[in-house]
Design goal:
By secondary structure, the protein is of the alpha/beta class. It has one domain (26-110, 124-200): Rossmann fold, CATH 3.40.50.150. 27% of the residues lie in helices and 25% in strands. The protein contains five helices and eight strands, in the order H-E-H-E-H-E-H-E-H-E-E-E-E. The chain has an eight-stranded mixed beta sheet with strand order 3-2-1-4-5-8-7-6. The chain starts with 25 loop residues before the first helix and ends in an 8-residue tail after the last strand.
Length: 208
Protein backbone atom coordinates (compact mmCIF):
# COMPACT_ATOMS: atom_id res chain seq x y z
CA UNK A 1 0.00 0.00 0.00
CA UNK A 2 1.22 3.49 -0.80
CA UNK A 3 0.07 7.09 -0.88
CA UNK A 4 -0.68 7.88 -4.52
CA UNK A 5 -0.34 11.66 -4.74
CA UNK A 6 0.21 14.85 -2.79
CA UNK A 7 2.49 15.70 0.13
CA UNK A 8 3.15 12.08 1.07
CA UNK A 9 3.26 10.70 -2.45
CA UNK A 10 4.83 7.22 -2.74
CA UNK A 11 5.11 6.78 1.04
CA UNK A 12 4.27 3.20 1.97
CA UNK A 13 1.56 2.19 4.44
CA UNK A 14 1.25 -0.83 6.67
CA UNK A 15 -1.95 -2.92 6.48
CA UNK A 16 -3.60 -5.09 9.15
CA UNK A 17 -2.76 -8.80 9.02
CA UNK A 18 -5.34 -11.37 7.96
CA UNK A 19 -8.36 -11.05 5.70
CA UNK A 20 -10.85 -9.39 8.07
CA UNK A 21 -9.77 -5.94 6.87
CA UNK A 22 -9.78 -5.30 3.11
CA UNK A 23 -7.73 -2.24 2.12
CA UNK A 24 -8.99 -0.14 -0.78
CA UNK A 25 -6.68 -0.90 -3.71
CA UNK A 26 -4.30 1.75 -5.06
CA UNK A 27 -6.13 1.70 -8.37
CA UNK A 28 -9.56 2.22 -6.82
CA UNK A 29 -8.25 4.98 -4.54
CA UNK A 30 -6.78 6.72 -7.57
CA UNK A 31 -10.15 6.54 -9.35
CA UNK A 32 -11.94 7.80 -6.26
CA UNK A 33 -9.64 10.78 -5.73
CA UNK A 34 -9.64 11.70 -9.41
CA UNK A 35 -13.39 12.24 -8.98
CA UNK A 36 -12.99 14.02 -5.63
CA UNK A 37 -10.08 16.23 -6.72
CA UNK A 38 -12.08 19.51 -6.77
CA UNK A 39 -13.42 18.83 -3.27
CA UNK A 40 -10.42 17.68 -1.25
CA UNK A 41 -8.29 20.82 -0.84
CA UNK A 42 -9.28 22.38 2.49
CA UNK A 43 -12.02 19.80 3.16
CA UNK A 44 -13.04 17.98 6.33
CA UNK A 45 -13.01 14.23 5.58
CA UNK A 46 -14.62 11.39 7.55
CA UNK A 47 -13.18 7.89 7.01
CA UNK A 48 -15.62 5.26 8.35
CA UNK A 49 -14.48 1.64 8.77
CA UNK A 50 -11.04 3.17 8.36
CA UNK A 51 -8.88 0.03 8.63
CA UNK A 52 -5.28 1.06 7.91
CA UNK A 53 -6.46 4.62 7.25
CA UNK A 54 -5.29 4.54 3.62
CA UNK A 55 -8.23 6.54 2.25
CA UNK A 56 -8.17 9.21 4.95
CA UNK A 57 -4.38 9.47 4.72
CA UNK A 58 -4.67 9.94 0.96
CA UNK A 59 -7.09 12.79 1.68
CA UNK A 60 -4.59 14.39 4.05
CA UNK A 61 -1.81 14.06 1.50
CA UNK A 62 -4.00 15.81 -1.08
CA UNK A 63 -4.88 18.77 1.13
CA UNK A 64 -7.76 17.86 3.45
CA UNK A 65 -7.41 20.03 6.55
CA UNK A 66 -9.27 17.78 8.98
CA UNK A 67 -9.70 14.01 8.89
CA UNK A 68 -11.51 11.77 11.36
CA UNK A 69 -11.03 8.01 11.34
CA UNK A 70 -13.56 5.59 12.84
CA UNK A 71 -12.39 2.03 13.47
CA UNK A 72 -13.03 -0.45 16.28
CA UNK A 73 -10.82 -3.47 15.47
CA UNK A 74 -7.71 -3.43 17.75
CA UNK A 75 -5.36 -4.78 15.06
CA UNK A 76 -6.52 -2.18 12.53
CA UNK A 77 -6.29 0.61 15.10
CA UNK A 78 -2.70 -0.34 15.88
CA UNK A 79 -1.79 -0.19 12.19
CA UNK A 80 -3.71 3.06 11.66
CA UNK A 81 -1.97 4.81 14.55
CA UNK A 82 1.36 3.43 13.34
CA UNK A 83 0.78 4.85 9.86
CA UNK A 84 -0.04 8.27 11.33
CA UNK A 85 3.15 8.14 13.40
CA UNK A 86 5.23 6.92 10.45
CA UNK A 87 4.06 9.86 8.35
CA UNK A 88 4.53 12.31 11.21
CA UNK A 89 0.87 13.40 11.20
CA UNK A 90 -0.26 14.67 14.59
CA UNK A 91 -2.52 17.64 13.86
CA UNK A 92 -5.82 17.88 12.03
CA UNK A 93 -6.61 14.21 12.71
CA UNK A 94 -8.72 12.32 15.21
CA UNK A 95 -9.11 8.57 15.67
CA UNK A 96 -12.40 7.31 17.12
CA UNK A 97 -11.90 3.80 18.52
CA UNK A 98 -15.50 2.63 18.31
CA UNK A 99 -18.00 1.10 15.92
CA UNK A 100 -19.37 3.27 13.14
CA UNK A 101 -22.96 2.89 14.34
CA UNK A 102 -21.96 3.94 17.86
CA UNK A 103 -20.08 6.95 16.49
CA UNK A 104 -22.95 8.07 14.24
CA UNK A 105 -25.60 7.56 16.90
CA UNK A 106 -23.41 9.52 19.31
CA UNK A 107 -23.31 12.56 17.01
CA UNK A 108 -26.99 12.30 16.09
CA UNK A 109 -28.10 14.12 19.23
CA UNK A 110 -30.63 13.12 21.90
CA UNK A 111 -33.35 10.63 21.07
CA UNK A 112 -36.72 12.31 21.60
CA UNK A 113 -38.17 8.93 22.62
CA UNK A 114 -35.88 8.72 25.63
CA UNK A 115 -37.50 9.57 28.93
CA UNK A 116 -34.46 11.53 29.99
CA UNK A 117 -32.50 13.41 27.33
CA UNK A 118 -28.75 13.84 27.82
CA UNK A 119 -27.46 17.14 29.10
CA UNK A 120 -26.54 19.64 26.33
CA UNK A 121 -22.82 19.35 27.08
CA UNK A 122 -23.04 15.59 26.52
CA UNK A 123 -24.22 16.18 22.96
CA UNK A 124 -22.09 19.04 21.60
CA UNK A 125 -22.80 20.38 18.16
CA UNK A 126 -21.34 17.76 15.77
CA UNK A 127 -18.40 18.54 13.52
CA UNK A 128 -19.38 18.71 9.87
CA UNK A 129 -17.68 17.00 6.94
CA UNK A 130 -17.59 17.80 3.23
CA UNK A 131 -16.65 14.22 2.31
CA UNK A 132 -17.68 10.99 4.05
CA UNK A 133 -16.24 7.66 2.92
CA UNK A 134 -17.42 4.26 4.14
CA UNK A 135 -15.99 0.85 3.36
CA UNK A 136 -17.59 -1.86 5.53
CA UNK A 137 -16.66 -5.52 5.06
CA UNK A 138 -18.11 -6.54 1.71
CA UNK A 139 -20.17 -9.33 3.28
CA UNK A 140 -21.72 -7.07 5.92
CA UNK A 141 -24.59 -5.89 3.71
CA UNK A 142 -26.58 -4.77 6.73
CA UNK A 143 -23.79 -2.33 7.68
CA UNK A 144 -24.30 -0.43 4.43
CA UNK A 145 -28.02 -0.03 5.08
CA UNK A 146 -27.52 0.98 8.72
CA UNK A 147 -24.70 3.45 8.06
CA UNK A 148 -26.23 5.09 4.99
CA UNK A 149 -29.59 5.16 6.76
CA UNK A 150 -28.07 7.03 9.69
CA UNK A 151 -26.23 9.46 7.40
CA UNK A 152 -29.47 10.10 5.52
CA UNK A 153 -31.45 10.42 8.72
CA UNK A 154 -30.63 11.15 12.35
CA UNK A 155 -26.88 11.66 11.78
CA UNK A 156 -27.30 13.94 8.77
CA UNK A 157 -26.22 16.87 10.92
CA UNK A 158 -22.57 15.93 10.40
CA UNK A 159 -22.86 16.58 6.65
CA UNK A 160 -21.76 20.02 5.52
CA UNK A 161 -23.81 21.82 2.88
CA UNK A 162 -23.19 20.09 -0.46
CA UNK A 163 -21.40 17.13 1.16
CA UNK A 164 -20.81 13.89 -0.70
CA UNK A 165 -21.09 10.43 0.88
CA UNK A 166 -19.21 7.62 -0.86
CA UNK A 167 -19.65 3.89 -0.25
CA UNK A 168 -17.18 1.32 -1.56
CA UNK A 169 -18.89 -2.04 -2.08
CA UNK A 170 -18.82 -5.27 -4.00
CA UNK A 171 -19.95 -4.76 -7.58
CA UNK A 172 -22.56 -7.50 -7.19
CA UNK A 173 -24.07 -5.79 -4.13
CA UNK A 174 -26.89 -3.54 -5.26
CA UNK A 175 -27.15 -0.62 -2.88
CA UNK A 176 -30.42 1.31 -2.75
CA UNK A 177 -30.81 4.47 -4.79
CA UNK A 178 -31.94 6.36 -1.70
CA UNK A 179 -31.40 6.15 2.06
CA UNK A 180 -33.50 8.73 3.85
CA UNK A 181 -32.41 12.08 2.43
CA UNK A 182 -29.38 10.59 0.66
CA UNK A 183 -29.82 9.97 -3.05
CA UNK A 184 -27.31 8.21 -5.29
CA UNK A 185 -25.85 10.55 -7.88
CA UNK A 186 -23.16 8.38 -9.44
CA UNK A 187 -21.99 4.76 -9.62
CA UNK A 188 -18.49 3.78 -10.73
CA UNK A 189 -17.45 0.15 -11.25
CA UNK A 190 -13.92 -1.21 -11.41
CA UNK A 191 -13.23 -4.93 -11.48
CA UNK A 192 -15.15 -6.63 -8.68
CA UNK A 193 -15.55 -3.35 -6.77
CA UNK A 194 -17.83 -0.35 -7.09
CA UNK A 195 -18.17 3.05 -5.49
CA UNK A 196 -21.54 4.74 -5.04
CA UNK A 197 -21.79 8.50 -4.53
CA UNK A 198 -24.67 9.98 -2.53
CA UNK A 199 -25.80 13.52 -1.80
CA UNK A 200 -28.62 15.22 0.09
CA UNK A 201 -31.64 14.78 -2.21
CA UNK A 202 -32.73 18.33 -1.43
CA UNK A 203 -29.37 19.65 -2.59
CA UNK A 204 -28.24 17.41 -5.48
CA UNK A 205 -25.98 19.43 -7.76
CA UNK A 206 -24.79 16.68 -10.11
CA UNK A 207 -21.15 17.58 -9.46
CA UNK A 208 -20.11 14.18 -8.03
Amino acid sequence: MRIIAGTFRSRTLATPPGSSTRPTSDRLRETLFNVLAPRIEGAAFLDLYAGSGAVGLEAISRGAVRVAFVERAPAALKVLNGNLERLGISTGVRVHAKSVSTFLRGVAGPNPKLEKSPKPEENPKPEKYEVVFLDPPYDAAEDYAITLGLLGGTAQGILAHGAVVIAEHRRKLALDEQYGNLERTRLLEQGDAAISFYADSSNVSGEQ
